[in-house]
């Protein structure tokens, strides 16, 4: 069984000081390398108290590097991305610029802490919205069920929210 080597460099097309340049390199058997999709982090992951934010940062970096899969392109800065932008009071162009001009997640986090002045209650409202989206019933739950059906996950009764669906669709659960 052969081994495929996938290299994902977050800094494609930029001049980076040598001490900061790195590749995320993964070696895996052929049967794990079934597609070329590089998945962003789970929406459950947090940065500065915000769920979904690390995922949004990953999507922007992948987009800037020309590596964001077509399935994600149409909704970049929409959906949960757009809800975060609205709650944070930041424009899509502004935040994309922040990510583009940063090297590390720490730099993005520093910018967020300095420029997004929301209290814990406001962050909790956002967190609850994201982590519970799909449980409201009606049209939203129907859309979740449709997405599960399209992805071949209709049999998964444990997928109650869009975050559950995303994590299952991206093979995390």
Number of helices: 8
Beta-strand proportion:
5-15%
Read across the widest sheet, the strand sequence of neighbours is 1-2
The poorly predicted ranges are 1-34
Q: Given the helix and strand composition, which structural class is it?
A: mainly alpha
Gross geometry: globular
What is the gyration radius calculated from CA atoms? 17 Å
Largest beta-sheet characterization:
2 strands, antiparallel
Report how far apart the termini are. 26 Å
Q: H/E series, N to C?
A: EEEEHHHHHHHH
Count of beta strands: 4
Q: What is the residue-mean pLDDT, rounded to a whole number?
A: 86
Helix content: 40-55%
What are the SSEs and their pairings?
Blueprint: E1 3-8, E2 24-29, E3 46-47, E4 50-51, H1 53-64, H2 70-73, H3 79-88, H4 92-100, H5 105-115, H6 120-132, H7 138-150, H8 162-169
Antiparallel strand pairs: 1-2, 3-4
Helix pairs in contact: 3-6
């Amino acid at each position: 069984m052969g081994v495929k080597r996938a290299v994902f460099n977050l800094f494609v097309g930029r001049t980076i000081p040598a001490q900061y340049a790195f590749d995320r390199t993964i070696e895996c058997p052929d049967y794990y390398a079934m597609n070329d999709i590089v998945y962003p982090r789970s929406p459950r992951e947090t940065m500065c108290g915000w769920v979904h934010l690390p995922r949004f940062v990953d999507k922007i970096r992948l987009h800037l590097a020309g590596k964001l899969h077509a399935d994600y392109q149409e909704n970049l800065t929409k959906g949960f991305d757009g809800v975060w932008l609205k709650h944070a009071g930041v424009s899509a162009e502004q935040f994309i610029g922040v990510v583009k001009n940063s090297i590390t997640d720490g730099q993005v986090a520093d910018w967020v802490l300095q420029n997004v002045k929301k209290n814990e209650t406001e962050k909790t409202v956002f967190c609850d919205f994201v982590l519970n989206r799909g449980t409201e019933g009606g049209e939203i739950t129907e859309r979740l069920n449709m997405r599960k059906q399209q992805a071949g996950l209709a049999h998964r009764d444990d997928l109650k929210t869009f975050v559950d669906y995303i994590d299952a669709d991206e093979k995390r659960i």
